[in-house]
Write a structure and sequence with these properties.
With 126 residues, the protein is mostly helical. The chain has one domain. The protein has three helices and no strands. The longest helix has 44 residues. The two termini are 41 Å apart.
Length: 126
């Protein structure tokens, strides 16, 4: 039972760290979006102020990085979902003690929050 509580607290810690990382990544994504919108504005309104030869390479690089970040996020969410499904199966075991069941429920709640934050970041990526 103690190991389940340790796992539950570790899941909460991992969720908190992942949420902070997701927030930092979302801020980075928004900053890149703002930079691209600013670049678009300058191209449309003052093309002489922009190095037109560098724009396509920069946009291609930024898009490739965004795709890699999104794919990584989707992979992490899929792995988390697999863990959640295995845990849900284990929670259905009638032989579990109440203490273990309670610890696993805390762990499940932390994982659900991590998934919710990951889905929100995925929306930001899109």
């Amino acid at each position: 039972m103690l190991s389940e509580w340790v796992a539950a607290r570790q899941a909460e810690l991992v969720t908190a760290r992942a949420s902070a990382d997701n927030l930092a990544l979302a801020l980075d994504i928004l900053a890149r979006m703002e930079m691209l919108w600013d670049l678009r504005y300058r191209v449309m309104n003052d093309p002489a102020s922009v190095d037109m030869t560098a724009i396509p390479l920069r946009v291609i690089k930024d898009l490739a990085e965004a795709r890699r970040e999104k794919e990584s996020l989707v992979e992490r969410l899929n792995a988390l979902r697999s863990i959640q499904l295995a845990q849900a199966r284990r929670l259905r075991d009638p032989a579990l003690s109440n203490g273990v069941r309670e610890a696993m429920s805390v762990r499940s709640a932390a994982q659900d929050m991590a998934e919710r934050h990951g889905r929100e970041l995925l929306e930001t990526c899109d």
